[in-house]
Recover the amino acids of this structure.
């Protein structure tokens, strides 16, 4: 039953997927996670073995690659449950995790506490040995995928120049099965579990927020004709990013004078992420029409969804997008970022490979200095730097 749930609980049709999620999310996925949780917290001498066997029975009912390829690897909701449960099984209640929770929570919940610095986060989670010297993979997950591809190439049989769906999967570990299915668990640690548990896509550091704030001030300085400069964050979730930018702006005002920058966090509440800080309950359309921003800020647009067209249509001169760019899970890889590989006609249409933002008269600037300060929930030991910040400006 659980294997069938994993295999059939998804659809490429958004309306059908919404219907399936409405039925399955409150019940079936809760049942899977609850049963998994009981195994995680059972007798320590057998907990890991029992936990892994429970999940392997769900993931590999026929013990072939077809179980992964034609089944649960397409089910994003199920993959999220499996990923979180796996991370919990390996890292929940470790000394590192318990210590980090205490240190990190203040910055994301307290009104009058600064975020930790990036180095403090790295040290707190014991991430010093991550591949920080490899700075060429900013917003690029290719290095991360190497492990997955190596597992597939060395362990799966091929047929007609592709992987044989009937290729047997025997004696694989749970981590490798999940990794091949796209759950992104290899090379992760307590850091990734903390991000998952606290619904963080971008894990904010003081360094990053200060650098982002400085760039907002730079954009504002390019518009001296504006007496009042309005920044609006859409899809703000808890409001944490805007809250900490406000703190930086307030400190800057004390030192350099007020530049007339106002920033407001907005979110429709559709994702039920909860509000930790001040957030106006506006949809994106309402935020654009009521607040008429000079600059829009958005962090981690939903995967496969583009909001930036509405920014341009509203006449917004500048917008900043934070998250995975071009081929990741932030926004739409063609409509938002202009990656022609994700265009339906492959760039053969009337406008060819010209990005939509270029057609609308906007220029893209990758802020790589900010990207090197970023941390996000899918970063891993072998491939950090998977988040970036990009500015789109009207010519």
């Amino acid at each position: 039953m659980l294997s069938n749930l994993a295999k059939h609980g998804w659809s490429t049709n958004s309306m059908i997927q919404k219907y399936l999620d409405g039925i399955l999310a409150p019940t079936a996925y809760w049942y899977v996670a609850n049963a998994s949780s009981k195994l995680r917290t059972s007798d320590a001498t057998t907990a890991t073995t029992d936990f892994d066997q429970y999940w392997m029975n769900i993931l590999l009912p026929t013990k072939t690659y077809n179980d992964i390829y034609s089944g649960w690897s397409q089910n994003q909701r199920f993959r999220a449950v499996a990923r979180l449960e796996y991370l919990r099984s390996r890292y929940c209640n470790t000394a590192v995790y318990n210590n980090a929770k205490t240190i990190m929570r203040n910055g994301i919940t307290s009104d009058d506490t600064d975020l930790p610095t990036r180095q403090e986060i790295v040290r707190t989670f014991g991430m010093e040995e991550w591949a920080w010297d490899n700075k060429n993979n900013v917003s690029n997950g290719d290095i991360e995928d190497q492990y997955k591809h190596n597992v597939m190439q060395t362990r799966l049989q091929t047929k007609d120049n592709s992987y044989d769906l009937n290729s047997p999967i025997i004696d694989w570990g749970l981590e490798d099965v999940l990794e091949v299915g796209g759950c992104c668990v290899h090379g992760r640690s307590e850091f990734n579990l903390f991000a998952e548990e606290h619904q963080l896509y971008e894990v904010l550091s003081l360094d990053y927020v200060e650098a982002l704030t400085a760039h907002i001030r730079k954009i504002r300085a390019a518009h001296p004709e504006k007496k009042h400069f309005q920044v609006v964050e859409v899809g703000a979730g808890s409001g944490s990013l805007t809250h900490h930018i406000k703190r930086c702006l307030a400190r800057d005002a004390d030192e350099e004078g007020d530049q007339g920058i106002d920033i407001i966090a907005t979110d429709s509440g559709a994702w039920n992420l909860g509000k930790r800080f001040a957030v106006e309950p506006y949809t994106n359309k309402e935020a654009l029409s009521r607040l008429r921003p000079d600059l829009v800020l958005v962090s981690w647009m939903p995967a496969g969804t583009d909001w930036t067209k509405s920014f341009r249509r509203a006449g917004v001169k500048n917008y900043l997008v934070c998250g995975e760019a071009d081929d990741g899970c932030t926004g739409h890889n063609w409509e938002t970022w202009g990656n022609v590989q994700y265009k339906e006609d492959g760039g053969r249409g009337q406008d060819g490979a010209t990005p939509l933002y270029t057609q609308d008269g906007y220029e893209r600037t990758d802020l790589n200095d900010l990207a090197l300060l970023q941390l996000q929930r899918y970063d891993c030991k072998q491939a950090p730097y998977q988040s970036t910040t990009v500015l789109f400006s009207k010519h």
Observations:
- The chain has a mean pLDDT of 90.
- Strands lie at 158-159, 162-163, 229-234, 261-265, 295-299, 318-323, 362-366, 388-394.
- Residues 2-92+141-188 form one domain.
